[in-house]
Amino acid sequence: MEVGxxxxxxxxxxTIVGLGxxxxxxxxxxxxxxxxxxxxxxxxxxxxxxxxxxMGVVNKTDWNLxxxxxxxxxxxxxLPLPGVRETLEVLGPHLEEGCVLTDTAPIKMPVLxxxxxxxxxxxxxxxxxxxxGPEVSVGEPLVGPEAARADLFEDGLYCVTxxxxxxxxxxxxxxxxxxxxxxxxxxxxxxxxxxLQAGVGDLPAxxxxxxxxxxxxxxxxxxMRKVAGYDFAALTSPAVADPAALRExxxxxxxxxxxxxxxxxxxxxxxxxxxxxRDEEALQQAYAQAAQGxxxxxxxxxxxxxxxxxxxxxxxxxGEQIGRMLFGGLLRRPSPxxxx
Length: 340
Description:
8-stranded mixed beta sheet; Rossmann fold
């Protein structure tokens, strides 16, 4: 198939609500892969909207949320958790029939409940999370539109987390979005995803906050701060995110987070015992095992060699036909009297 034929018929509008790093990266990727697609952006922070427009993230921005989503076949909420609830409540009545709506929030069960509360039946909602690809350094700050890049999610995983009520066509649309970003779909139960997030997202933020509370402004900090360096900055970096978003995520994922916190406290108690008893062998072995586990994870991430690597060929409808369906069908507004 000629390139021109492959691109033929891809048309429609996508609206991205939230033009931080994630939303702007999605916009850059869509505009790079589908230049004929209209990408509209909205952000309550006018500086983000202007920066995204200057970077070519979107074709245009609109300060009015309902107007920004008018005529869109796909709306992406690239927002912190508190913003998702507020936006669903405001936007729900204004979304057109058949619109596919998705989010990128860090936990899923609360979002699904909010969607049930605020969205009309004619809106097709599916929740998911794109994860940065292996070429993105784990230490790279991913904050604001200035950190956005078109290949942010290339060869990464796109967690697709539908529930039993999710419209299959919404899942198909999300698979098409994942493919446009160059990401590999990973299907997860939303409850399972929230449990995983408690360990690798919520717990590190909680630990970072606790370390800072135990050191900053404590006795000796005036001198301690002078020798604090990269290790301290790296350990405590998860605490710099929006405090309201961290609070809401922790409380809404409380049961999962408490289980992980109990496991951490048990481990800290064990380590404290080794220190108390001067158990050199146990301490050294624990340090070595931890370093090996981290190195193994980083290598797996860099190579994409997960034990259960999802295959695009095994997923229903993924491929060129899904791309055409998404951009030439689901995102195209039907003409009057045309069946969807």
